[in-house]
Amino acid sequence: MGYKLVNFKTLGDERGSLIALEENYNTPFAIKRVYYIFDTKKDVVRGLHAHIKLKQITIAVKGHCTFVLDDGYDREEIVLDNPNKGLLIEGLIWREMKDFSEDCVLLVIASEHYDESDYIRNYQEFITKVMENEKNK
Ligand code: TYD
Fold first, then answer.
1. Which domain covers residue 125, as residue numbers?
2. pLDDT by residue for the chain (137 residues), tens digit each?
3. Contact, 76 vs 1, CB < 8 A?
4. Among the atoms of ligand 1, which is closest to the Cα of residue 37?
5. How close is the Cα of 19 to the center of ligand 1, in Å?
6. Which of the residues are catalytic?
7. Ligand 1 proximity of 37 Cβ (cutoff 6 Å)
8. C-alpha distances out from residue 84 to 2, 26, 30, 36, 44, Å
9. In total, how many domains does the chain have?
10. 27, 64, 89, 96 - which has most CB atoms within 10 Å?
């Protein structure tokens, strides 16, 4: 599936921990946008979309949540629960985020500016796009 889990090196000392992300060094793309998701209400499911072009790395810098990843053939669940764990999504993947802890802060690093036309927000359209890509291979 078009995702990868990335381990970031924790630079720590007796005062605490620190992780640095540097463009094209431990991120595989140039960073155009950073956003964060927080204060997600209990039992809410977010995401529910795929992207055509966008690449993203998501990190639970605080708390935890579960990502459901779907490539049109299989569904996998990934728990993000550590600030040193990044989820890199590069391919055509439908994603849903659920089971947010109350304190969860998701930091997202993105390869493109916000562009609604890059979103596929309808699951059937997503499947159609997956099939199209398969035909054009
Ligand atoms: P949405 O895509 O629904 O969030 P999620 O996928 O996490 O459930 O985004 C919520 C709103 O924020 C929506 O109106 C679009 C807007 N938005 C921006 O303006 N810029 C951004 O970078 C992002 C990610 C969302």
1. 3-135
2. 889 999 999 998 999 999 999 998 889 999 999 999 999 999 999 999 999 999 999 999 999 999 999 999 999 999 999 999 999 999 899 999 999 999 999 999 999 999 999 999 999 999 999 999 999 98
3. yes
4. 7
5. 25
6. 49
7. yes
8. 20, 12, 20, 16, 25
9. 1
10. 89
